[in-house]
Amino acid sequence: MRAFLFAALALTGAMASADAQTPLATDADIDAAAHAPVSANDRSYVVEIAPFRIMDNLYYVGAEGVSSFLITTPAGDFLIDGGAAQTAPLIEAHIAALGFSIRDVKILLNTHAHYDHAAGLAMLKRDSGADFAASAGDRPFLEAGQVNYGPSADARYPAIRVDRVVADGDQLTLGGVTLTAHLTPGHTPGCTSWSLDVRGADGAPHRAFIDCSETVAGQRLAPESYPGMVANYRATFAKVRALEADIFLASHGSMFNLDAKRARQIAGDANAFVDPTGLQHYNDAMEAAFNMELAQESAH
Description:
13 strands, 7-stranded mixed beta sheet, Metallo-beta-lactamase, Chain A, alpha/beta
């Protein structure tokens, strides 16, 4: 496990070369993608829901159909996921509506490199000046602006340079707040989940887990969409079974019953997002769906 302590304005460690810091997408590319027409299938990625505090310093700033999470600290903020390219302006507006600034985001993170979670990252990095950290497994896709297999293989997006590669168990600390990276590959080779400690309104401690995705989502298992995919899924299911978290969140709101939990929170339940069995129920359901899909594909 490596621990990274981030300064308020820059990554610690040796200075990178000027070439390494050159953006991989131009402003014109970023702005064109952000204002491109949204397909019918992607409409939920730009449907607004009011941003809100989940608990403590953890906020939901995503759209109806795709998640993004803001974690605030006294030294600047973390932001996880950028949605589709057209989601990024919405995320920035949500951050402002909560009384924060996109310029306060110092560390930008990603769950995985599919366009509906990564296409908005280049705009968010440009507008915040944040350092971007991601896994080695997904780095080639992020820096190419495309996952070159599966149902979204034709979905290109503004590429983003990875400033810091994170490995399993790495800890990123900013302003006394620590996020831990959990590599949970399968959905993509570098699928990364994130965890952090938060406190409830009554001061009780909680562990939040932001799951990357364990869905197959139309990708081929037999033959594998990428080498080692089936083994990756199986290792992830086993890893998640050993984890404990009582606030289960994920890259899409539908995965963690966002609508129902938010409704309970609005009705006055301060602990609406406390869900001690949610992560394991989700993991079990995804493993069962994976096994069924693999059996069906293998039979044909």
